[in-house]
Amino acid sequence: MTGLQSPVGVRSIVTYLVAFFILASSIIFLFDKGHQDHVQMAVDHGRQEVQVKVEAELQEPAMRETTEVEDTSKEECNWSRGQWVYDNVSRPLYSGLKCGFIFPEVACDKYGRKDVMYQHWRWQPYECDLPRFDAIKLLEKLRNKRLVFVGDSVNRNQWVSLVCMVEASIPDDRLKIHIFNGSLISFKALEYNAVIEFYWSPLLVESNSDNPIIHRVDYRIIRADRIEKHASVWRDADIIIFNSYLWWRKQNDGMRMKVMYGSFEDGDARLDEMEMIDGFEIALKKLTEWLGENIDKNKTRIFFAGSSPTHFGASKWGGEDSNKCLNETEPIYKVGYKSADYSLMAKAMSYFETLEPRGINVQILNITELSDYRKDGHPSVFRKQYVPLTKEQIANPASYADCTHWCLPGVPDVWNEFLYGYLMYK
């Protein structure tokens, strides 16, 4: 009896294995097909949700690079490569009208901008999701710490954004204060003893543009060997975010930077004139030297923000240059669009790389590509005008349109999502 049962048992086992294999193959096939259907449904749903008038071939939006996505396996995910997705559920992250710390030059809805689509775009990296911003977690991270933005008005734009993103989580006004002290503006979350500051230093080194209020000068002069006045402010910071591109861009072909060596006090003052990018290198060299000699690499994290693009040349996206960014209400949908100048950012990176052998890592917040698509994100004419407009300007609104700074809520919120992700997870 036992001799007859063995072959039957073997046949049963084989039969079960074959059945299991067929069943598993069917499940995998159905899963793959379902996944494809799900993706197609998600795309179709996204197209319906955005509800913007674009060409059919561009409606699956989204601003996709024509170049191949870089291998990000070593860096987990490249956040800077992705697309803008319209999202009126989770965006905006705060109300510009309710943020008590917003500056009038970026408070677009307060100054008459009626379209609000610019507030509802979310940046979606191709290969992952950005970490969800959590103001309380950030404040815990910043407990007993000091974060300082150092740079120009675009960097101040990012500072205002971060303050608005954070202060909404502190409903009690007694637990948050705002302090102006010359070139230094501070936001303090008292419960956490956390400080988020902005320091006006548009050219990094000392210059004739260091006054945060009166700095519009016909010609710019930097002091090649002087940075300590500025550095003394950020020396003890735990986190520093530098940004200095805007003031180094040539406003016209003949624009040049004046560089002062020595001092009048010592009788060895000398004034040279050079191309703007050469002056930028002098400032970078001095900053890099200071960081290498003074920074505590075990305490301070250093970031350098990418170049923030402007949108004055409307012909680049099919408009009229005379209009600049006036009346733009949607992003650029052109696949692979790129118009920003990366030369200054590349120059900055080359200098910061010299600090790596000393164990000092300056992390670049690469926000240039994603910002390049957002011709709709600027204040244009919807901001406070500190100087009365002339009759000619009133007759031609595009003549005074601000296509440099960014409405809030808006694009700089994503820059701060990048910063948050670095601070919390990288």
UniProtKB/TrEMBL annotation:
Keywords: Golgi apparatus, Membrane, Signal-anchor, Transferase, Transmembrane, Transmembrane helix
Keyword Transmembrane recorded: yes
GO cellular component, one term: Golgi membrane
Residues in Trichome birefringence-like C-terminal domain copies: 130-420
Membrane topology (UniProt): Single-pass type II membrane protein
Alphabetized PANTHER family for the sequence: PROTEIN TRICHOME BIREFRINGENCE-LIKE 9-RELATED (PTHR32285), XYLAN O-ACETYLTRANSFERASE 12 (PTHR32285:SF197)
Family the UniProt entry places it in: Belongs to the PC-esterase family. TBL subfamily.
Protein name: Trichome birefringence-like N-terminal domain-containing protein
